[in-house]
Write a sequence for this structure.
């Protein structure tokens, strides 16, 4: 079972809009990582941080789900 669904993270990042330029980013999934193309460095940093947060959130949720199944 895959712990993190990269496509879900891709879609949530693509819904974001740059606070400075009002542009949406283009995200591609390359293997287990994300390639971010966007308007400026500031937004790229923000997207990277959001991606990290999302990945750790999903990892935690999925591990908890698996543990629940084990201890049923
Ligand atoms: Zn921008």
């Amino acid at each position: 079972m895959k712990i993190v669904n990269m496509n879900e993270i891709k879609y949530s990042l693509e819904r974001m809009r740059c606070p400075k330029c009002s542009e949406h980013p283009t995200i591609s999934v390359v293997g287990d990582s994300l390639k971010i193309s966007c308007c400026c460095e500031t937004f790229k940093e923000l997207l990277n941080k959001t991606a990290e947060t999302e990945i750790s959130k999903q990892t935690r949720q999925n591990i908890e789900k698996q543990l629940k199944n084990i201890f049923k």
Summary: The radius of gyration is 14 Å. The chain has a mean pLDDT of 93.
